Amino acid sequence: QGAAKDGYKHFMLKEIMEQPKVLRDCLVGRLQDDRVCLPELDGLPVPGSIRIIACGTSYNAGLWSQYYLEQFAEIPVIVEIASEFRYRKPILKADELIVVISQSGETADTLGALRLCKEKGYPVVGICNVLGSSVAREASACLYTQAGPEISVASTKAMLSQMVLLLLLALYYGQRKNADCSHAKKLRAGILNELKALPEILEGALPVMRDKAKKFAYQYAYAKSFFYLGRGTAYSLALEGALKLKELSYIHAEGYATGEIKHGPIALIDPDFPTFALAFDDDNFNKVCSGILEIKSRQGNVIALLQEGTELENNDLWYIPQTKLPEFLALPAMQLFSYEMADYLGKDVDQPRNLAKSVTVE
Ligand code: AGP
Prior knowledge:
With 362 residues, the chain is of the alpha/beta class. It has 11 helices and 12 strands.
């Protein structure tokens, strides 16, 4: 066990720190100049709409990708929780593509959804980390994430790798749909350059992030509840941040869309109910900041995660480097925060209570 952890105290920490390599590995063989190669999908038609189905962290990755699929592929996307999808009477469109996401490839509900869609005659693309798993074998086509074995029950690097594949999927369909539009081509090339730069940026940022995570974990270890807020591409990350905190440290946490808090949840805010807010340097920045100020004016404490070059009046600021894909840095930052919190509180980081790595029962 000691050797497998490569000197790290826990598998989770090792897996968080491996993420620059995961980013690199996920891109191997996938890029040719400014083109994305997903030959696994070349034989399938460009879908009219996409339905993404998954559970837990994999669901959060799917929800995140909706923004990029709509932006770059201009394909409408629905994202569903597998256990809900299976027991409805879903109405699928004729030209719909089903995408199931599963790290393990063995999650019972996700597998059940895959089988249901296949029975109905729909092509199902699996995004999966485990070679030869049930999802990989049964899907019409499988895009393997290159995260390597994930031992810690809490999923970290697998989500990052799913996000890379999903972004590539968005760019790939954008390519197939808008091959000749020079404006769209330029936009795709721009985001690909941001993606290619990420491994190095993350590598440099991780040690600094770890120090910051430790400091904030100690400072906020008093909390019995936490809000995680995000808007746009940060919304699904807020859900993931909250999931990580609760499963590892057993602190109650809720992820919310920043714009929704004034519709009820803000009633909970007081000095003992802190918020972890994601304020990326994008079109939503000013709106997110005004949400944060509303919380502060009700005496709520806030950890605000910002990108370098932006400003906000707040005591606890957590700066991450500038990039057009801040989600790939914010995710490890939040993972480290939950890790440090759980370790500080003496919880079983790699094997949280009541949880299994893959949920093979319904
Ligand atoms: C996340 O930390 C959890 N371990 C859990 O939510 C997990 O993502 C979920 O059970 C789905 O697993 P899968 O990706 O293997 O299908």
